[in-house]
Amino acid sequence: MAQTIEADWVSRFADEVIAEAERRAPGKPVVCASGLSPSGPIHLGNLREVMTPHLVADEIRRRGHAVRHLISWDDYDRFRKVPAGVAGVDESWAEHIGRPLTSVPAPAGSPHPNWAEHFKAAMTEALAELGVEYDGISQTEQYTTGAYRDQVLHAMKHRADIDAILAQYRTKKAPPKKSQKPVDEAELEAAEGSGAAAEDDGAVSAAGYFPYKPYCGGCGKDTTNVTAYDDETTDLTYTCAGCGFSETVRLTDFHRGKLVWKVDWPMRWAYEGVIFEPSGVDHSSPGSSFQVGQQMVGIFDGERPIGPMYAFVGISGMAKMSSSRGGVPTPADALKIMEAPLLRWLYARRRPNQSFKIAFDQEIQRLYDEWDKLEAKVADGTALPADVAAHSRAARTATAELPRTPRPLSYRTLASVVDVTAGAEDQTLRILSELDPAHPITSLDEVRPRLDRAESWISTYVPADQRTLVRDEPDKELLGSLDEQDQESLRLLADGLDTHWSLEGLTTLVYGVPKFQAGLPADAKPTPELKVAQRTFFALLYRLLVSRDTGPRLPTLLLAVGADRVRRLLGR
Ligand SMILES: [Zn+2]
């Protein structure tokens, strides 16, 4: 059983949530909640909506309390627009705008029965890999089976009270529903299609205000207006502005419609007894659905959840992604280039009100270095308590350890190796086995899945002009132009290769050659002059090996190229 952790923001929220749950519903499971809209690819930015309650729920579970993390799939929302850049989708999907997301066909070629299921599936898979334990609730299922029948009738009965609350905000411009604001312009278009449903609080018609909207019995769309409602019989009449269809139904046994969002959300807080549910910082504004919900929830005899506002999560390095992918990074995309514990760690170590970026660019290498350093500190007991807490939340949940790479070689090194080998497995294994000859890697499985993540990063996100291409033939012109001293440096390096053939040995060698030439001992401290000489020497090696001034770290590059080819390219 994992231990309770008491040093971080997660723990402080857990204290607060447990105390509140004891006050409201002693002895019942503590309910934490998230909401996701499968209106398109679910943006990586929206993962905070899940990770924040996940981490808190997990801490509550570590303490031995019964807890439920609900993920509400808002799949009964209307299909608002056809998102750009989704494979298997064309403009003909516009025909379905106004229908529930579960009534829209899935993209062509999808094995899933409808639009919502298609996009839920990718997220569900990512959440499983991240170790997120939750109860998924389909709002389509809830509404169409009549689970909310009493709540719908109650809302209709109290429509004047609901209208009065909404009226306080109607003149103010409504912010987006519940998702994050897009992080940069490139993502704007895509993010709009992935959960940022515009506000809808129901229209006031000649017949009055109604917080409930039927989906049309003729065309299936929500272009309907309630024209009459009888509180006694619950007979409801609507007409469809789209197809002209009209009918009168009895609301006690009619289940093809939903409460408008600003009523729907607080109704569910009360229905499920939600104690903790965060929302994006856009909810700090007056008129946001969280603010309105605090007032609205009283109508359903409930209380607002503890709901921290979380700051936006940005993405770095996505600009290079082709527009054919729609430019929408999803959690699955992140998990292709980093292991689940690393992604969990990004959320665990920052308080919800701190924004941060998820790196798809070179920064990912630094991030991995930082993670490896933390692992080492945790192992030898020198990490600070808050860092230990974040590490533990990243590496395991209350019930399971996340899978890890048996021999976590530096991501930077792995990336350099697959960069040079272009993924050829025999070469990759040869190089990795030579990194540390005393403890050689004997199978690539020892360095998986980290190796696969590094390979995927190199091949997907590193632009062609930053990839490493080892020369086939020596650069005769450059070799012919070298002075005596440069030639000697190459000879010293070439002669030392065989006796220094390991990551550590080659590191000593490449730094040692300029020292030797300067008449300094091998353990000499670097002086400014020596540093210049080393940089000049390294630049020469890069030019001769990869025709550029920089590249992967030289010892890794030398190992990757192989001793014979190095000697040939150095003209030795
Ligand atoms: Zn219709």
TrEMBL record:
It is an enzyme of class 6 (ligase). Its main location: cytoplasm. It is found in: Cytoplasm. Transmembrane segments: none annotated. A motif ('HIGH' region) lies at residues 38-46. Its EC number is 6.1.1.6. GO terms for cellular component: cytoplasm. One of its GO terms (molecular function) is ATP binding. It catalyses: tRNA(Lys) + L-lysine + ATP = L-lysyl-tRNA(Lys) + AMP + diphosphate. Residues 171-197 are annotated as: Disordered. A motif ('KMSKS' region) lies at residues 320-324. NCBIfam families: lysS_arch (TIGR00467). HAMAP family: Lys_tRNA_synth_class1 (MF_00177). PANTHER family: LYSINE--TRNA LIGASE. This is Lysine--tRNA ligase.
